[in-house]
Amino acid sequence: MRVHRYKLFLLFFIQAFYSFSQTNQDSILEKTKENEDYIFNTQNIINQNPANKLYARKHNLTQLKTSLVNEKNDYYLKQKGKDLKRWSVSVFTDQNLNNTTQVWGKANYEQGTRKSVQWNETSDYEKIYPYVVADSVGGDIQFEHYSFSGGYAKKISSFTLGLEGHYHAKMEYRRVDPRPKNISTDINFVLGLNKSIHEKWTIGVKGNIEKYTQKHHLSFHSNQGFPQVYTMTGLGNYNALLSGKPREAYYEGWTYGAGIQAFENKKRDWYIDLGIKTFLADKVMPEFTNLKSSEIKQNYLYTNIAKMYKATNFDWGLFLNASKLSRKGIESLFTNDISSNFTTLGKLERYKNEVNNIKINGIFIFDNLRNKHSFSPQILISQEHETYSYPFSEIKLGSVNYGINYQWFHTLKNNSFFILDTEISAKNLYEKKATFTSVRNEAILEMLMNNFQFQSANNINASLAFSYHFKVPILDMMFVNIRANYVDFNPHHNFSFNSSIGITF
Amino acid sequence: MPRKYIIKTCLFIVFLFNFYSCSDDENYIKEQFTNFTFTFDASQNLEVDQYKTLKIKLTELNSGLTNEYDVNNNNTINLNLAIGTYDLTVNGIVTQNNNGNTTEINVSGLETSFNINGTTNSKTINLFINTSLNDLVIEEIFFTGSKTPEGQMYFGDQYFKITNNSDREIFADGLLIIQTAFMTVDKQDIRPNIFNEALSAGAIILLPGDGNTYPIPAGESIIIAEDAINHKEFNPLSIDLSNADFQIFKEDSDDIDNPEVPKVINVYDKWVIHTQGYYAYALARIPDNITNENLILQNEYRYEYDFIFGGTVYPMDGYAVKIPNEWVIDAVNLSVQSIYQWLVTSPILDMGWTSVTQFDGDENRFGKSVRRKIIGQTSNGKNLLKDTNNSTQDFDAGVKPSLFN
Fold first, then answer.
1. 3-class DSSP state for residue A122?
2. How many domains, chain B?
3. What is the pLDDT of residue A24?
């Protein structure tokens, strides 16, 4: 299987070089600058509709990149792990074949280790929470991820039709007890359509459908014993009947989404993006006749609005992002007539998580021949309310995060350029409340308290990034990129370092 | 023109949103509580003058949540209960009027795996008289084995400690020690279910003697060892069992024999002590007119049950030996905390269970035992052990074995 995926990756890589050989003679400097441009990357949000990818980029681009990420965290969510080491290689291309056709594709491979993952032996925590399989021991998790995506947009009359597909496969495992082996896949298709109105602005719609699966298996090699395995149901609760002996779980989910976008045709100096995504997933226990133990129903509503202005000496703009996530967890209750046969007594909506975010940021850009300075102040207001109805437990958080980003984009005389990017922000909790009742296990209570301390901690975040893009013979434009990020929780701190090197052509 | 497009597109989004909402089958409910009435009835077994005190323990099996309630001078209680599957145990005192004299009688009751989901709102729990026989009791079971200094498992040093909890001398001769056929961690719909009349024995050993060979003075104990040797020679962290009173010896195996220690008699099947405590153990005496052979021949018990796996039903059967409940003088259900499923004895013999192992495979179980609680001392200064026929209450779970002192 792994060999097969490497072949696919190689094939994509060869295809990317082929497209490079076919590309027109765009200025390598211009295309690289465009790719790194702050505004361009912000506008990318509306390109989740594949139809909108046509004309989004002025220059064709192919990029090959390898990255190393190293995180050391004092404060973290137990289920996601403490430290992270990850190596990845990716190749990406976006090509305008003619005035009416755009194709793009990406392949990515990464491997690494998440250290000290506890109370979660399953993968994709963000997708399946709170219904993870857990134990108190945990440990380091090795992972390998593969992803491939590709798309096509074609203009027909005043309409543009776009189609994009993604495939993402993950294998995560541990080689010491407890030994989870998780294989998960995502297959996602996005269909988009837009129409140009009076050649001035465009309105687009998109719909997407995604199938998610995860197969979880847990084993132990020790002949002396092993830790208790829990079927978690949210905020430290677990189903006692399903905990203990089960060693397998299967998750299957579908995501349905729809969105609408409107934007100015040429510069895209304003846009509106609205959408909804619904995620429905089931967890079943294969050892109990595929017993459905829980369900997730999640709705995610989002909007992104932006307007940019051009003044005499500088450009400026305003961006608004708002989102509302509502997640319900429905668990089945059982009666155990006999050990190997559980009868479902009923289904109860016991878990709920609501997250509301609103972010406003401005951008001020001072641009001259060789220097571009961008300042972006921002404020993010976030509210989260997580509840479990019986026994009642809740976490309520409200925070304001404000900060400023500064970017210096400098073009050198030899047509190389560098980008210095720095950001500082502070997160202040104006509300934090936790209630945990009837937690039956001290280790679980400790986990809940540790997680809450992390979630409710004020912090100051500082980051510094430097990337240098330079011309080299044959390979054209190379780049190196380093980024350091420091989060101060006083007295704890998290630190991450990210470095990458790549070629743009 | 643009406005028309916007309206159309917005209508499309609204349609999709409604479609998602309608596609949600909503075949689930929000939290639901049922006002439930329990009535406790001891009238089948005695004429009750007054229900003095009742202590009720209610456990919902999915959440594992346990709540306790006290009822005084009444035999009913109304509770607002969440949907679920429950186990209920009740212990209490009722009074009986005998010609003007009021006598207090201990009663108990048990109801397992009953559902509360709004369809019914009342239940009657029968109470039975809680008698202590003032006889031999299982004081301690050390079933887990120990660990070596290198962290390896060590077995063979398990033992049973049987104590005379009366004020008279009792002979151990002819005492049956029984391991049940069924496991407390594996619930099955057994047909026929004989729990109310007999104990289902999966393995039986018998203490030798002619009836006057092995006296146990009041308050004294005997040790029945898995291997009656000095285990310290092999594992410094173990114990010396070379002075045990009896040894379990399997004739057809390459078992260790200490010629200085009397062997128990293997009556039925091979005696293997489960190191996590999946079974119940009992002491019994057979009537004088029944030989060991006849015990097996006359009390053979064939049972059937359905094993369901992957939706397929596999008919299963098995054999055990019926030990009438009247013959049983003490019983202890052992289990594993996280995977306990049912009692494999009649609740009249034991309406609780005790354990060392917190969860299946618990590595912390080694070197721990279950020991009966001491509630006082007899007139001759011996320990008086708690014996309410409820192992949950009568035993200290997961404690240091007495011979490790």
1. coil
2. 2
3. 44
